[in-house]
Amino acid sequence: MAARDSQFPKLDVREATKVYHTRSGDLLAIDRCSLAVEEGEIVSIVGPSGSGKTTLLWSMSGLHHLTSGEIALDGQRVDGPHPDISMVFQDANLLPWRTIVANIRFPFEIKGAKPDTAWIDQLMHRVGLEGFGQRMPRELSGGMQQRVALVRALSFKPSVLLMDEPFGALDAFTREEMNHLIEEIYLDTRTTIVLVTHSIDEAIFLSDRIVVMSARPGRIANIHRVPFERPRSLEIMGTKEVFDLTHTIKSEIVGDQISKARNRKNAANLSKAS
Amino acid sequence: MASSDAIPDFKQSPDGGGEVGVANMSGLAAGPGIKSAREVAIIALVAVLVIGGAELLLLAFGVPQYVLPRPSEIAWALVTDFHLIAPHLGHTLVELISGFTIGATVGLILAAVITQFPFAEKIITPYILLLVTTPMLALVPLLILRFGFGYEPRIIAVALASGPMVMINATTGFRRVDSAKIALARSYGASTLQIFWKIRAPMALPMIFVGLMVGSIFGLLTAVGAEMVGGGFGLGNRLTSYSSMIQMPQFFAVVLILSFLGILIYMIFFLLAKRYASWEA
């Protein structure tokens, strides 16, 4: 990776804890999660549902306030949405009453800034969306909508891109295409990326490191380094290293689930016996 | 913004589940659709058959004019007496437009404000429902006692009839919170006001148009009803006057004008909804 000239990690999560106050009582979503994302790194977060992946990501974006702990960008505490951090949501999340162009200009409208049209055109070209600017979102396929969301997120040149299960709703082929696109754009811009995903394949293909979370409460269970050179090809996905890594991560996720279920069952049996 | 920090729930249907207001947007914005020349021709043919058939039947059975005038007589009355009816049409329009403007404005503002405060909304909603379901015509005699036989009681009645209708539909619209879209705007640092104008208002727009359409039709009904109750002018007053004088062709001419007015109102909001809120259809 690029030479470090800063003593701070790009994005530093320190002892992040988040409690949701719900009607049925307090819910500890994430518990003392610490993670340092370096500049120009791609980090994936995987884990069973309920492990607080999304909560952790939303906290990094400043959309959630932590109950305790803190998030720092270049050593500066993040207290709310930050102009250098951009978010790609599940299901594209386009505004259906706006044309594609108007959707992409939306961040600039909110910030009261002039859209960087040259950069936007370049991004549109890159993701293969030229000529679609005047269309409405509903006229585009799911994959194309997600590309628009990607262009929108990168339009104001953020230094950190957060992605919340961005391709979960897409079919396997479109998903692979999007993964290549992300890598391509990454190699161009060296944007720091944190990605929440359900797909271990996707995590391995894209990431420098993979964070595995365990559920209830959400904790960081393990962090794996993915050692392949970029640009990565689909070929690496067939290697033994990837196979082993996939297996390890899977058993960490599934094993966590199974052992928790077993504990619950034992506890139930005990209470029945007594 | 009380719920901004809650667990994001994308499965929550953005159209607010089944709780659609009085009318459904799909009936308004989707409308009858574009018609082919053939369909238009058949619709015209049906009109000719029905009107011509009525003309012939009434003629053949010698039905007297005071029971049911022939279509040709109604058309003739519409032409010859239009100059007598026109000023009354003007009066009705003044009452409708001013009453509706007041009612709709107040209704829209109230809807926008109370949806920001869920508690206030819970308290106010039953009273709004009461206003929607109570026929405002019932208040007209009272309003006449207080305000006399001029425009005022009618304008107040129209405002009271249309305002709650606009408000209840707009409230449904503003309540359709899509937490993901609001989070999107917030991630760019949007203020509460920006979120309102750029996310909440456009999302509410289709339901607002439904409210405006239903509200204005209710306003028309109330205006005509109020005119029938008291006062010496307006299309409703013409209806009572012509029927008491057994001038049935003129009576039906006024009914015809009222139908056109209703259709015109529908068309205006149909086209506005199509232009500004068709993204949802």
Short description:
The complex is a heterodimer of chains A (274) and B (281). Chain A contains 7 helices and 10 strands.
Task: Itemize the secondary structure elements and their pairings.
The complex is a heterodimer of chains A (274) and B (281).
Chain A: E1 11-22, E2 25-37, E3 42-46, H1 53-60, E4 68-73, E5 76-77, E6 85-88, H2 100-111, H3 117-126, H4 142-154, E7 160-164, H5 172-189, E8 192-196, H6 200-206, E9 209-214, E10 219-225, H7 240-273
Parallel strand pairs in A: 3-8, 3-9, 6-7, 7-8
Antiparallel strand pairs in A: 1-2, 1-4, 4-5, 9-10
Helix pairs in contact in A: 2-4
Chain B: H1 25-30, H2 37-60, H3 71-80, H4 82-114, H5 118-133, H6 140-147, H7 151-175, H8 179-187, H9 192-229, H10 235-244, H11 248-276
Helix pairs in contact in B: 3-11, 4-7, 4-9, 4-10, 5-7, 6-7, 7-9, 8-9, 9-10, 9-11, 10-11
Structural notes for this entry:
- Chain A has 274 residues and is of the alpha/beta class.
- Chain A has helices at 53-60, 100-111, 117-126, 142-154, 172-189, 200-206, 240-273, and strands at residues 11-22, 25-37, 42-46, 68-73, 76-77, 85-88, 160-164, 192-196, 209-214, 219-225.
- In chain A, the strands form 2 sheets. A 6-stranded mixed beta sheet of chain A has the order 6-7-8-3-9-10, sandwiched between helices. A 4-stranded antiparallel beta sheet of chain A has the order 2-1-4-5, with helices on one face.
- Chain A starts with 10 loop residues before the first strand and ends with a helix.
- Chain B has 2 domains: 34-63; 69-280, Orthogonal Bundle (MetI-like fold), CATH 1.10.3720.
- Helix content of chain B is 74%, strand content 0%.
- Chain B starts with 24 loop residues before the first helix and ends in a 5-residue tail after the last helix.
- Chains A and B meet through helix 1, strand 6 and helix 2 of A and helix 8 and helix 9 of B.
